[in-house]
Design goal:
Blueprint lengths: L3 E3 L5 E3 H11 L1 H17 L8 H13 L4 H10 L1 H4 L5
Antiparallel strand pairs: 1-2
């Protein structure tokens, strides 16, 4: 069984330790994907092209706060797409 993997940016890693090192080198890849998944959960739909600026802003704010999870949640809940969502 091959224990190698790859990230969307084309970088490769081997095993869990390799994945950890790859993510530590480029944390914004993980944070952006996590933010998109949180958007899907919070908005009840997949992120759209119009959501891209809000997602980038959330990731930038999280970077300034050492990528704290709480920064992602605050950024998401104060974002325009979240504030303007249709409650059902």
């Amino acid at each position: 069984m091959d224990d190698a993997g790859g990230l969307p940016d084309g970088s490769h890693f081997a095993g869990v330790a390799g994945l950890e090192q790859a993510l530590l080198k480029r944390p914004e890849l993980f944070v952006r994907t996590l933010t998109e998944k949180l958007f899907t959960f919070a908005l009840g739909r997949a992120p759209e092209e119009a959501d891209a600026p809000a997602i980038r802003q959330i990731v930038r704010a999280a970077r300034a706060n050492d990528y704290r999870f709480s920064s992602l949640i605050v950024g998401l809940t104060t974002s325009t797409p979240f504030q303007m969502r249709n409650s059902q």
